[in-house]
């Protein structure tokens, strides 16, 4: 599974607070899908697919940072 962090989103050009909001919404999305693992406050990585679903875009493999 490819994951995304707030730092990754900032590197893609999103603002700091918007990036944090995206991660928060992605965690909420994963929780509603039954993945209680994302309830952790310290967790700062979410699946790329969740971020893509929230933003309505698809990241190319060139944009990811592993």
From TrEMBL:
Top-level taxon in the UniProt lineage: Bacteria
Xref: InterPro entries: DUF3173
Entry protein name: DUF3173 domain-containing protein
Taxonomic lineage: Bacteria, Bacillati, Bacillota, Bacilli, Bacillales
């Amino acid at each position: 599974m490819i994951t995304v962090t707030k730092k990754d989103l900032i590197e893609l050009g999103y603002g700091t607070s918007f990036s944090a909001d995206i991660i928060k919404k992605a965690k909420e999305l994963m929780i509603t899908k039954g993945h209680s693992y994302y309830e952790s406050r310290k967790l700062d990585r979410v699946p790329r697919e969740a971020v893509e679903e929230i933003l309505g875009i698809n990241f190319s493999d060139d944009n990811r940072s592993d």
